[in-house]
Amino acid sequence: xxxxxxxxxxxxxxxxxxxxxxxxxxxxxxxxxxxxxxxxxxxxxxxxxxxxxxxxxxxxxxxxxxxxxxxxxxxxxxxxxxxxxxxxxxxxxxxxxxxxxxxxxxxxxxxxxxxxxxxxxxxxxxxxxxxxxxxxxxxxxxxxxxxxxxxxxxxxxxxxxxxxxxxxxxxxxxxxxxxxxxxxxxxxxxxxxxxxxxxxxxxxxxxxxxxxxxxxxxxxxxxxxxxxxxxxxxxxxxxxxxxxxxxxxxxxxxxxxxxxxxxxxxxxxxxxxxxxxxxxxxxxxxxxxxxxxxxxxxxxxxxxxxxxxxxxxxxxxxxxxxxxxxxxxxxxxxxxxxxxxxxxxxxxxxxxxxxxxxxxxxxxxxxxxxxxxxxxxxxxxxxxxxxxxxxxxxxxxxxxxxxxxxxxxxxxxxxxxxxxxxxxxxxxxxxxxxxxxxxxxxxxxxxxxxxxxxxxxxxxxxxxxxxxxxxxxxxxxxxxxxxxxxxxxxxxxxxxxxxxxxxxxxxxxxxxxxxxxxxxxxxxxxxxxxxxxxxxxxxxxxxxxxxxxxxxxxxxxxx
Length: 559
What we know:
This protein has 30 helices and ten strands. The protein has helices at residues 10-15, 26-38, 41-45, 50-62, 64-69, 83-89, 92-95, 98-103, 118-121, 124-131, 145-151, 153-159, 173-183, 198-202, 211-217, 227-234, 256-263, 276-287, 304-316, 333-345, 358-366, 378-381, 427-437, 440-448, 458-461, 464-469, 473-480, 492-507, 513-530, 542-549; strands at 135-141, 162-168, 190-194, 235-236, 239-240, 242-244, 250-255, 372-376, 395-398, 416-420. A five-stranded mixed beta sheet has the order 2-1-3-10-6. It has a three-stranded antiparallel beta sheet with strand order 8-7-9. It has a two-stranded antiparallel ribbon with strand order 4-5. Strand 4 (235-236) and strand 5 form a beta hairpin. Helix 17 packs across helix 18, helix 19 (304-316) crosses helix 20 and helix 19 (304-316) crosses helix 28. It is globular, with a radius of gyration of 23 Å. Residues 1-73 have low confidence and may be disordered. It comes from Sinorhizobium kostiense.
């Protein structure tokens, strides 16, 4: 049994504080500016794109390691096994853990819609005729190397493409990838990474930005992705640069045995906790009960953890992070309202909340130490699994509590995306590999395995068999039609880190809530200026980003 591309992907590691440590340094942009001025002027004046130039440079000799990899023994099309026999093995009985299949009496019926599952609709014979014998180099975290190799065997058999893994130490994945991109000598064709970094990689032109041509040619079902993932994990500057991989959303979860006593009856997912005021009230009541259980779990640790909690709540108050001139709006009424709620909730929170990131929050929730939790959707799926959770059958995931005068805007926060390098020697083969890894059947089975790699497909979250093994799926699916998301801008992760440090200072009583947002806004302006935002313009047009920041406008509520 194996998990495609490992049980812990880029987003999960970033949430754990593993490799989400730095952002694109200023010298990277300075380097690119110097290159443009001193070396690319003549080339660009003839209409050659930077991506094409970088790719041609690699071909001419800067990527000697890549060239040598192409001399590996290749698959012959005639030697490849029957396509259907391979697809038949990408199934519930072969991919989903046996103990989970027994737990839920799962049949081998698909947890996805076969008509939408790309690996079952693409013409593999055509793929083989064009790609068999070629190589794709895939950058993976070193800890994932073994599981990635196992997970990619079916792709190699289906396509005839040999995948050469390029392991990168997990704690330096970002820095190593950026260094290779800047050198113009990336040792990989494709990579998957924390989606908050998308602007850092796409803005300077490090990513292949014509994936749309491949998506059209090979009929990738982009329309099956929820809009928030397609727009925020896939597009930059109006061009398709990635395929969504780990598709997260933050949600609110309640312990039934505790909260039903306080609420006076069974929990209605939409109406029992209609507002954050009510969540504050019931978590305060729960906090008085003792017994080793605190009222609420939330993440308020330094860095992006605290920012994600603030964005989650501020979105419900109608937060717009920027105006249309790229001016940050952190100190708006919505931003301040979120700080007021965080300061109230943290009084009911588990001890050590100011140091809580995803790992600490997950342990407290699954260990039964909190009565409510503000976290990701996998806090619901994993809480169903006896090997991971002490609260099986004693929780429910609810619709997002609302804020008076705000909107229903469940937050799409974190996640990861799959991209092709601008210098790729085989961008089409890299695209096909990533399409395989992100196909709906494999993503559905990741969810069934409760490994934290979340599907972003309508056809998966609407599947009743999938919903039977993923308690949050119905609310999750409904919520995604109204999702809020921070834009994937160059420098965005650095900005979220900086703001979170200030919010954490407010939670620990060092500064006021207002000072936290004011300090954060000052830091954001400085970081944005460093990354090319000035006078209302920047590396990406506001009009290209705006549709993905909130997708719920004008839609009827799901309850």
